[in-house]
């Protein structure tokens, strides 16, 4: 299965995705972005520094970059899995559809034509083949988000917290509801894990139960 690990910034997606790849044989993952992606990191820094007139360029770069890498990686993954008796899963650390959430929030202050333009690009670039068979949403409250946000200590984020506090609050307030609506619009299966009082190990156990349940259903249907 293609499985999207979803959720707000600092919800634990990357940690869970990495651990699940280790747990399930012959599985692979695609991170949301490469830590050494100079273009992404520059855009991100400019975004948090609130440079003007870069929002739609940043959002378009993200979906174009993620989409092109996904197509290559998933093709390689399917080819390798043909040779394995035990079929692995392909995990996505946030999948392409979720970037629509950021665009909707980030372009809200712009003229409507910008969101219309992004909509057109999004619908052309994101195809059904990129959507996961299952999405697991890691839910958390705002205080937990803030605690984890500062704990992971990415300077580009924490150094600009006060400048972007309203943005993070707005993103948090809308993220889950827009995610659920997108899943309904695109007919995606999704499950939600409340991570607030769970350890990383407990979150992983919950995710494993969900994955095994859907995997067994797929085998039965096939």
TrEMBL record:
Domain of life: Bacteria
GO function terms (MF aspect): kinase activity
Protein keywords: Kinase, Transferase
Residue ranges occupied by any Deoxynucleoside kinase domain in the UniProt entry: 3-210
Keyword hit for DNA repair: no
Protein's recorded name: Deoxynucleoside kinase
Pfam families xref list: dNK
Keyword field contains Glycoprotein: no
């Amino acid at each position: 299965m293609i499985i999207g690990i979803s959720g707000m910034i600092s919800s634990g997606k990357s940690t869970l995705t990495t651990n699940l790849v280790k747990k399930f044989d012959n599985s692979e993952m695609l991170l949301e972005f490469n830590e050494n992606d100079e273009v992404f990191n520059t855009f991100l820094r400019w975004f948090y520094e609130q440079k003007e007139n870069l929002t739609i360029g940043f959002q378009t770069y993200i979906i174009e970059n993620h989409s092109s890498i996904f197509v290559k990686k998933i093709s390689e993954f399917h080819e390798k899995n043909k040779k394995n008796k035990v079929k692995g899963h392909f995990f996505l650390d946030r999948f392409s559809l979720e970037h629509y959430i950021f665009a909707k929030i980030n372009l809200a202050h712009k003229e409507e034509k910008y969101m219309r333009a992004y909509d057109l690009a999004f619908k052309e670039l994101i195809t059904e083949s990129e959507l996961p068979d299952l999405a697991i949403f890691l839910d958390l409250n705002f205080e937990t988000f803030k605690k984890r946000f500062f704990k992971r200590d990415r300077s580009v984020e924490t150094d600009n917290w006060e400048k972007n506090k309203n943005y993070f609050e707005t993103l948090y307030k809308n993220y889950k509801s827009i995610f659920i609506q997108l899943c309904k619009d695109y007919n995606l299966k999704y499950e939600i894990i409340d991570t607030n009082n769970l350890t990383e190990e407990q979150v992983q156990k919950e995710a494993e139960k969900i994955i095994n349940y859907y995997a067994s259903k797929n085998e039965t249907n096939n």
